[in-house]
């Protein structure tokens, strides 16, 4: 029987040095341990799909400052290649500059592009909490961002890219959960390396965890 935490874990390899053999190993471990999905860079979507596992990829990762055309093109290609889930980095600079309408419009256009007929794609937008830490109204800004993500029709708010100033905390999960209510799904990623950290995030309201340490999490006593 899979470990109870396995269903919550996305086993990820987004390293620049990832090889086809690394991705094949990743997918083998997803099957072996019963993890929710393999998360790979876009060039490996086809390879990962051939293994029969659920496959996710990242879009505009990790900065989110590609043009809208580039993002939509990447979304469409990922869907056509067979990705089941997309973790998308929005342009948080637009939001922090006060252009909240433009920020919301980008989110909505990406969601609409991803939701092709007959393709039940899961869309998550990434909120990197470290970018809000220096703001005097950190909580309010994080919650406004989370509410914009919810309003776009996305399936998840993902807290942390693993490439930002810091990883997510239990406090971050609570802040986002308060903003989006009980039904919106939350994923966390970046620095969740132990069973205790994973369990704490789930208790706080996350339902999914992205990690390159999934095996360690489910094999720790």
TrEMBL record:
Annotated SMART domains: DeoC
GO biological process, one term: deoxyribonucleotide catabolic process
Tree of life domain: Bacteria
Pfam families: DeoC
MF terms (GO), sorted A to Z: deoxyribose-phosphate aldolase activity
UniProt keyword terms in alphabetical order: Cytoplasm, Schiff base
Protein name listed in UniProt: Deoxyribose-phosphate aldolase
Organism: Candidatus Gottesmanbacteria bacterium RIFOXYB1_FULL_47_11
């Amino acid at each position: 029987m899979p470990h109870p935490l396995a269903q919550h874990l996305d086993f990820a390899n987004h390293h620049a040095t990832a090889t086809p053999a690394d991705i094949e190993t990743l997918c083998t471990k997803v099957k072996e341990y019963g993890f929710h999905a393999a998360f790979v860079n876009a060039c490996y979507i086809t390879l990962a799909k051939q293994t029969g596992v659920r496959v996710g990829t990242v879009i505009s990762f990790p900065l989110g400052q590609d043009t809208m055309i580039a993002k939509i093109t990447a979304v469409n290609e990922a869907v056509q290649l067979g990705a089941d889930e997309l973790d998308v980095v929005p342009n948080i600079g637009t939001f922090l500059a006060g252009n909240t309408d433009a920020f919301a419009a980008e989110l909505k256009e990406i969601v609409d592009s991803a939701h092709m007929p007959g393709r039940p794609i899961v869309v998550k937008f990434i909120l990197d909490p470290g970018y809000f830490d220096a703001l005097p109204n950190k909580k309010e800004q994080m919650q406004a961002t989370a509410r914009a993500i919810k309003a776009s029709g996305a399936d998840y708010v993902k807290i942390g890219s693993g490439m930002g100033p810091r990883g997510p905390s239990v406090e971050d999960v609570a802040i986002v959960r308060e903003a989006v209510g009980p039904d919106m799904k939350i994923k966390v990623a970046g620095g969740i390396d132990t069973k205790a950290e994973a369990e704490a995030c789930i208790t706080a309201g996350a339902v999914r965890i992205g990690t390159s340490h999934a095996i360690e999490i489910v094999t720790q006593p």
